[in-house]
Write a structure and sequence with these properties.
5-stranded parallel sheet; alpha/beta; single chain; about 60% helix; 7 strands
């Protein structure tokens, strides 16, 4: 089966663990056995990535690295599972039912949970109280080899269709404001963007949704064509400070500071690189403050 291949810098960006530490785990403690290219460059597999995450989980909980090195791969997963379960507390019923549906790959069951919670609590509470915890749980289960990327894709597609259907059904009168929503060329995690589109349509905004992986030149053409009041994009994919700054500079070359709104984990990591005149969304409360003005 094909697996993603990662360089050590990729692992550093994805896990937050320094490359120097990963090398120590490999060379001194023999915890990793990466393949090497003809030019002696390390290549790590998806299994290596999961193992690094589990090692770090145990190490962060106080287990000495020498002790972890004495464990088999199966023992590392077992101990990581015990630790995650001990810290998870009581799982809300809706989160548990939805997680079970994902493990079963039961799309109908997933849709029913989403629909039931939406009708009872609305889109914001559905997202905050059910979707976000489930996405965290999916990450943990992937790390523990309990589910694979296909499970995540099925759920993402079900959730995507669900939010789009709701968004298309919004009939609020327009207030005369336009917003472009898009993801840069190397970004594909669009669920937050779809949620923002729904919420903005409820507020009466006209939404021009460009979608995922939009080349900058195409975004720029769309910006000048539609002349929106605001632009929202999200930057989640792990990246270096240099890459983040370069992408931001491109945005600011086309969009006035006060019309640009950024979201995603990179806006937290590189917050000090973002001009104060640019809006940032770190929570739905931030979103409400920005778009209730």
């Amino acid at each position: 089966m094909h697996q993603n291949i990662y360089l050590i810098k990729d692992l550093e960006n994805l896990t937050g663990i320094k490359a120097h530490t990963i090398r120590i785990w490999e060379l001194r403690h023999k915890l990793l056995k990466p393949l090497r290219t003809n030019t002696n460059i390390r290549q790590y597999s998806e299994s290596d990535l999961k193992k690094i995450l589990n090692i770090n989980l145990l190490y962060s909980d106080g287990i000495k690295i020498s002790k972890i090195a004495s464990l088999s791969d199966a023992d590392i997963i077992d101990k990581a599972t015990e630790l995650i379960e001990s810290k998870s507390g009581d799982t809300p019923v809706d989160v548990k039912i939805l997680t079970d549906a994902i493990l079963e790959m039961n799309s109908d069951k997933m849709r029913k949970v989403l629909d039931d919670v939406y009708k009872e609590k609305g889109i914001v509470q559905l997202y905050q109280e059910v979707v976000v915890p489930v996405l965290v749980k999916i990450g943990e289960l992937w790390q523990l080899n309990t589910l694979n990327i296909a499970h995540e894709h099925i759920f993402s597609n079900v959730l995507r269709e669900f939010i789009i259907t709701l968004s298309n059904g919004v009939s609020t009168s327009r207030i005369g404001k336009k917003v472009i929503l898009f993801l840069p060329a190397d970004e594909q995690h669009e669920l937050p963007l779809l949620l923002y589109q729904y919420l903005l349509r409820e507020k009466g905004w006209e939404c021009i949704y460009l979608g995922q992986k939009v080349p900058f030149v195409d975004f720029e053409k769309s910006y000048y064509k539609f002349n929106p009041d605001m632009v929202i994009t999200s930057m989640i994919k792990s990246t270096s400070e240099k890459q983040f700054t370069s992408t931001l500079e491109k945005f600011l070359s086309a969009v006035p500071h006060d019309k640009l709104c950024l979201s995603g984990s990179n806006t937290v990591t590189y917050f000090d690189k973002i001009p104060k005149t640019v809006s940032t969304i770190h929570s739905l409360n931030d979103f409400e403050q920005i778009f209730s003005k």
